[in-house]
Specification:
Layout: E1 2-8, H1 13-24, E2 29-32, E3 37-40, E4 43-47, E5 66-70, H2 75-87, E6 98-102, H3 109-129
Antiparallel strand pairs: 1-5, 1-6, 2-3, 3-4, 4-5
Helix pairs in contact: 1-2
Pfam family, one: Amidoligase_2
InterPro entries: Amidoligase_2
């Protein structure tokens, strides 16, 4: 199983959930809880407390601390969602992180090595796809 989470800011969690819902032609469901979670099909939007909130103008509060749980989805779905978020002026600042988790019984030393090599060879295009102009810090494979 592949699990991807990323942090972003610039717009609120509710706005992000609505945009994803529009892209997927489904409704965002607010689940609440400690992390103020929205579910949109297999996607999740939640409060990422590590994100430093920011917006184009004025003060940004906790609603702008956005975590995004990205399912293993077709490329065109991902592209559509990320294009819509980019058009909505999301911000990926220095506090935003991207986490990729690989789980499963077939995950072993060879798969770790393959994943590390794949990421190393494609990291520039991965960050470009996410609109992130940054360098990799604290990359580790466990």
């Amino acid at each position: 199983m592949l699990k991807i989470e990323m942090g972003l800011t610039g717009i609120t969690r509710k706005e992000v959930a609505g945009i994803i819902g529009e892209c997927l032609d489904t409704k965002a469901i607010y689940k609440g809880g400690l992390n103020y979670q929205y579910n949109i099909a297999d996607w999740t939007v939640f409060m990422d407390t590590t994100v430093e909130p920011e917006k184009e103008e004025g003060e940004a509060g906790d609603d702008y601390k956005v975590g995004l749980g990205i399912p293993d989805s077709p490329g065109e779905e991902l592209a559509g969602v990320f294009k819509a978020l980019e058009e909505a002026k999301v911000i990926i600042n220095h506090s935003c992180k991207l986490a990729v988790t690989v789980q499963g019984p077939l995950h072993g030393e060879k798969s770790k090595e393959n994943l590390l090599n794949l990421f190393e060879s494609k990291k520039e295009i991965i960050f470009k796809a996410f609109g992130a102009n940054c360098r990799i810090q604290n990359f580790k494979l466990t």
